[in-house]
Records
---
Amino acid sequence: MGSARYIVQRLIYGLILMIGVVVLNFFLIHAAPGDAAEVIAGEMGGITEEMMAQIRARYGLDQPIIVQLWTYLSQILTGDLGMSYHFNRPVTELILQRLGPTILLALSAQIFAMIIGTVLGVLASRKPNGPLSGFVAVFSTVGYAAPVFWTGLMLVILFAVVIPIFPVEGMVSARFRGTGWAYAMNVLWHLVLPAATLGILFLAQYARLSRASMIEVLGADYIRTARAKGLGEGRVTFHHALRNAVLPILTVAGIQFGNLISGALLVETVFNWPGMGRLAFDSVLRRDYPTLLGVLFFASAVVVIANLLTDLSYRYADPRIRTGGR
Amino acid sequence: MTTQAISPLREAWMQFLRNKPAVFGLVLLSAIILTILYGRFIFSGDPYQIVWAPLSPPGERGYLFGTDFLGRDILTGILKGGAPTLAVGVSAAVLTVVIGIVMGALAGYFGGWMDDLLMRITEFFQVLPALLFAMVLVTLFSPSLYTISFAIGIVSWPPTARLTRAEFLRIRELEYVTAARSIGAGNARIIFKVILPNALPPLIVSAALTVGVAILFEAGLSFLGLGDPNTVSWGLMIGQNRNFLLEAWWPVAIPGLAIFVTVFAVSLVGDGLNDAFNPKLRSR
C-alpha cells in the first residue's frame, strides 16, 4: 500500500470519527432532560421568549429529528458551533483562542515525559535489579496514585511560598508588554510548572515501559553480535537497542494523547492556564452548553490528529510496516 | 467453580502473600475501608458543622487535621468523604469491567463484521478525552452519585474491551474450546463457561487498576465542582479550599493525601495480583 493512499485513508477515517463526535453531541443535547432549546440556551436565567424562538428557528427544532441532525451537522462542518451565551461570542472564535495554549501545554508535557522517562528507563535497564530500577518502580506507582490536580497544587505551595522562582498562575505576567523573544521567554517561564505537573503523570509510565522494552531488546541476538563486534556499551545501548525499543513507546504516546488532554484540563484549572480546559471549567459553572460541547469537539479533533501523526511516525520508525501488511 | 479452577487461584494467592508490597497494600486498603465504614460510629460528627475559627492549623483546640475555610473540621470531612469516593470508584469500575468484557468478548469471539463494528466503536470512545466527556455527561444530566459512576463507566471501558478481545482471540483457537464445541456447547456457554474463566486473570488485574483510575476520576470531577452536591468528598474538599491555598495548605494537602494513599494501596494490590498471575514477569 502506497504512502499517499494510506494517508488519504487515515484522513477519511479521521473525518468519519469527527462526524461521529458531532452526532454524539447532537444526541447528548436531545437526551438531556428538558427541551433542547433550553439545553442549548443553558440555565442562564432571564432568557426571553424571543431568544428561545430564535434558538428554535436557528436549530430548526420544530423539524423532524433527522432534519435537525442534518442542519446541526452542516452548521458544524462549516465551522459554526453556535454562540456562547456567557461570553456572547461565537464558540469557534472562543475556542480557537484557547487551542494554542492547550496544545503548547500538552506537547511540552508529552516531550518532557517522553525524553526524561525514556532516558531513566534506558539507564535503569542496564541494571535490572539496581537502585535506579527500584526507583523507577516506586516512582511509577507513586506517580500513578497522586491526583494530578493535587500534585499541581502542592507545587504551587512549594513555588509560591517556599522557593518562589517560578510563576504559579497564568501564561504571561500581568503587566508584561514585550513581544517576540521576550514574550516567548515569559511564556516559557510560566510553562515550567504546568508542563512539569502534567509530565510527571506520564513520565513514570514511559520510564517503566522503556525499561521493560530495553531489557527485552538487550537480550536479542543482534545485540550480542554488536557487542561481539567490539562496539562500546554506549553505542550498543543508544544506537542498536534504543531504536528497536522505541516502538512501544511511540504506540503508548499515541494512545496517551486523550489522557494527556484530560490531564491538561485539570492542570489548566490549577494554574489558570488560558486553554480549552479552563474554558470548559468556566462553561460548566455557567451551564454554557454550546461552549462545552464545542470544547469536546475540538479536543477530540486534537486527539484524532495526534493519532494520525502517531500512525505516520510509526510507519517511519518501523520499516516493516511501510513495506508489508500488518 | 470446579475443583480444577481452584488450584491455580490458590497458587496465585500463595504467590501474592509472598509479595511484601502487595500484602502491605492489602493491609493498608483494608484499614482504609474499615476506617471509612466504622469510623463514623466512633467519631460521629457533622462534616458541614462549623466548629471553630476558619483555617486553624492542625492540632489546634484538639482538631487533629485543623479546620477548612468555613471553620469545619477536616478530620470529620475525611472520614465522611471517603465513602462516596470509594462507592463511586467501585461501582464505576464494575460498570467499566462489565461493558468492557461484553464488548471485548463479542468482538473477540465472533470476529468478522462484529469485531470490525465493535472495535470501531471502541476507537471512537478512545478519541473522546475521557474527563471532558465525563464532564459533559455529568453537566447535562446533573450530578449525583449515579450519574457520576455512570459517566466514569461510559468513558473508561475501552482498554478493558481491548484486553478482553485479545484474550478471547487467543483462547478461542485453543483445543479445549474446539472440544467444547464438538460436544455441542452453544456460543453463550462457550463464551461464559469455557473462555471467560480462562481469560479472567488479566481481567482481574485490570479491574483492580480500574478501581484506582475511577477513584482519581471521581476526585477530578468533584474538584471541578461536578461532584454530588449532597455529599462531602475528598475531591470536593480540595476544590473548595484551593482558593485559600496560600494562607492554609492543610485543607488541600490532607484530602489529597487521603486520595493518594487509597489509590496507592489499590495499585499495590493490582501490581501484586499481576505478579501473582504472571509468574513469568516476576523477574522483571
---
Amino acid sequence: MPDNLDDRFRSLDEIAAPDWRARTEAKLAQAGALGPAGASPQRGWRPVPLAAAAAVLVAVVAAAVVLRGDNGGDGPAGDRVLVFDGLPQGVEFDGFLVCPPVMLDISRLDADLELEPPQEPVTGKDDASPYVLRWQQDGRTVRLGYPVVDFPLLAVLFPTEQVEIDGRSAVLTHQTDSVLLTMGDRNGCGGFEVLVDGDDAAAKSLALAVAHEVRVSAPDSRVEVPSVVGLDLVHAQDALARAGLVSDQDRSFGNFTDPEPVLRQDPAAGSTVAAGSTVALTMQPPVVTSTTIAPPVDGVVLPVQPQPLVCPPALLDVGDIVFRSQPTVAWANAWEWTDGDMNKVVHLSWPSREYVEGDRGVRELTVAGRPALMHDGGDGQDLVFDTGLPDGPCRFVEIDVFDPGSSAAREARAVELAGQLHINPPRPAGDVPDVVGLDVPAAANKLARAGYIPDWGAHPALSDPPAEPPADRHVTHQSLQPDGYTVRLDLS
Amino acid sequence: MQNARTVDRDELAPFAEAFERTHERLWRALLAYAGDPEVASDAAAEAYAQAVRRGVAIVDIDAWVWRAAFRIAAGELSRRRREAPPVDAPDVASVEGALGGSAEALELLDALGQVSDRQRRVLVLRYVGGYSAVEIARLLDTSAGSVRVSLLRARRTLRSLLEDHDA
C-alpha cells in the first residue's frame, strides 16, 4: 500500500549501491588534482559542467527552434537578430515566451545565432521561460538570454564580482566551468544574462565583450495590445511577448503551479502602445473574503481535493480571515494559501507530520484563550493549539506561517490568524455512514465528509507528533458517542 | 580542467569520512532522482571530485556534495534530453537488469519518473536523503514553505501513482 511512503522508499535499500570511490579518484587524477597515487581515469566518463546558470538558463528554455530560412546567411548579423515586431516569418515555437524578443537588441553582435533547443515540456507557469540565444565565439559557446524568472531550484553558490560595462553595473559569477554575467533586473525583461563556457580570463573577457554589444531596448514602433483576459499566466505572457510587450503581474496572488486566469489587463486590449510597454495583469481574485468561501464544505466553493480527509472541513470557520490567494483544501484537510507573495505561505490544518521538523525550539503559550505551542522551524512558525473539541485527530489545529521575515513577525501573523479562526461545532449531515470493514483512512474520510469526527483511539497530546490513521488496520465496530458527532472505531 | 589544483592526500580525510557517511544514501537518492545508475554514479563521483578540488573552502561537505551531485545529475539529464528524444521516466529496466531490486522498488522508481522534476527532488531529498523541510530548503535555495508545499503535492501525486500500480 502506498500510504506509508517511508516504507516504500526503504525498498530502495535493497538495491546495492556501487562503490564509486575509484571513479572519484579517477576524476581527480584526470583533472590533475590528485597526487601520483590517484587511480587512472575510467573510460566512458563525460565531464558534466557544473554550471548553475547553464543549467538554469538551459533547463527552463521553452523556445524551440533555430532561427532559419529568410534570415539566412546573407547580410550582416544585425539583419538576422531579433529586432522585429514579433517573431520572424517561419519561426515556430512549441514553448512560451516571457519577454519579448523585440527588446533584446543584439544587432551589434557578429555571430551565427540560434535559439537554444527545448529542454523540458512546458506544463505550468513555472516552466515558462525567457528564450536563450546561443552561438560560438572565440572557440567558446556563448549563451544570451533574459534573466530567469523562476524559483531557484538547486543552487550552488559560486564566487561573484561586480563589474562595470559602459557605466552599467553587472555581476559576474565564476562557476566551475563557466562565467555568468548578469546585467540589470534579474526578475524581469529589463536585463540580460551572458553565459560563457570556461571560467578563466578569456571567458570573462568574452562575457564582458558580449555584454558591451547587447542592449535591452524597445524599437521605435507601436503595437496593438492583445486581449489576454481569461488566459493563464503562461499564455498571457507569451501572447504579450509575441506582440512585443512586457507583462507585469502581481505575483503576490499567485499559486505555485496552478494556472490562474487573468482577470484584468491594463492597458486594455485593442489599445495602441509603444513596443516594449508594460501591460499590468491582475491574476485571479486579489482578495478572497469569507463570503466567497463559506461555508467550507465539500463541493460548494472551496475546491476540496478528492484525497482522504480526516476531519470535517466545516469545523474550521475561516470567515474572518482575508486570504491573499484562493485557498484550497488539500490532502488531509490542509488549507493553504499565499499570504502576500509567493514566498509567504500559510497552511491551516490538523497537525501534520512536518511540524516537528527543523526544530529550533518549542514553547508553550496561550492563544485566544487556548493552550498552544509555538514551534520555530527556522524560517517558519508552526502554531498548534487546542480547539476544545473531543480527544481525537481533530482536537488540535495547526497554523504554519512561512515567509522570509523575522520569527517575531511570523509568530505574530500565526497568532493573528488563530484569533480569526473559529471552531464550528460539528454538524453531521444525515446518518452515520457505515464504515465497518474499511481501513482507517477510508473510514475517517467517509466520516469526515459526512461531518462526523472519527476516533480510532489516537489521542495525541498537544506536544505529541500527530498520528495518521493507520492504513494497515480495519474497522471492526463503530459506535456513535453521546456527543452526537464522534464515532468511536474499534480496529482489527 | 580549469582551476585545477593538487590536493594533498591528507586533505582527503574529511572527504573520505563524508564519503563513508553518505555515499550509499547519496547514490540511491541520485538513482531515485535520475532513474539511471550510471548517471547516479557519475554525478556522485563528480560532485565529490569537485568538492575535493575545493578543499577547505567547503564548510559543509555533505551539503555541498548533495547540492552539486543533484545539479550535475540534472545537467546530465538535460543534456540527454537535448541529444535524444525526451525520456521522462527513469529507465527502470536498466536498474532491474543491472542492479536488481524488488518489484516494490522498481514500481517506486517508475512512479518517481512520472512526477515533475521539482517534486521528485523534494521527495528524494526527504525520503532517501532524510532531510527535513528546512534542510531541503537550504539545499534547494528556497523557502521551507515552498518545500512543504512541494512535498505536500508530491506526496499526493506519488501516492496516486503508486495506488495505480497497486490496483
